[in-house]
Amino acid sequence: MTLMKGKEMSLLEHIKELRRRLMFTAFFFAVFVMAGFFLAKPIIIYLQQTEEAKLLTLNAFKLTDPLLVYMQFAFIIGAVMTSPLILYQLWAFISPGLSKLYSCIDYSLFRRHCLFLLYFVSVCR
Predict the structure, then answer these.
(1) Can you spell out the DSSP letters for the chain?
(2) Spatial distance between the Cα atoms of 17 and 5, rounded to a whole number of angstroms
(3) How many CA atoms lie within 13 A of 46 on its CB side?
(4) Over the range 56-85, which residues count as b (16 or more CB within 10 Å of their CB) and which as e?
(5) How far is the C-alpha of 56 from the C-alpha of 32, rounded, in Å?
(6) What are the tens digits of pLDDT across the range 48-63?
(7) Residue 39 burial (10 A CB sphere; 0-12, 13-18, 19+)
(8) I want to staple 74 with a disulfide (CB 3.0 to 4.6 A). Which of 36, 51, 96, 111 is the partner?
(9) CB within 8 A of 17, min separation 6: which ones?
(10) Does 70 or 104 have the greater pLDDT score?
(11) Whether 84 contacts 110, CB under 8 Å
């Protein structure tokens, strides 16, 4: 993915660039959701062993409820892991069109989000 700084683009070129970035993000989202399938079971087991969860009874009212919870965990894990990439792709698409006033922001939002994600993952252990 290249930044298109200093180049005028037509509407069709903008749409192609956006499509390329969306496909790139969707591919990695799918990869991270697949990784979420492997991480969902240990996370669910860990959450079931906390003090708060020991006081609750877990009920499955439909046959598909356990599968639905497992799928939701995998989806959420994929969304959280993809969020830095989503923010980067969004910023890389928008930043070439910004004026000099806003160009000083650079990738600080992306860096902050990545640092927050790393902090969150390290605290959750």
Answers:
(1) ----TT----HHHHHHHHHHHHHHHHHHHHHHHHHHHHHHHHHHHHHHTSHHHHTSPP---STTHHHHHHHHHHHHHHHHHHHHHHHHHHHHHHGGGS-TTTGGGTTHHHHHHHHHHHHHHHHT-
(2) 13
(3) 8
(4) eeeeeeeeeeeeeeeeebbbebbeebbbbb
(5) 30
(6) 888 888 888 878 888 8
(7) middle
(8) 36
(9) 4, 9, 93
(10) 70
(11) yes
Place of tokens 């990738």: 107
Q: Give the tokens for residue 98.
A: 């910004």
- For residue 72 the two structure tokens come to 């939701």
Tokens of 114: 């990545």
**pLDDT on residue 100:** 62
Q: For residue 5, what are its two tokens?
A: 């700084």
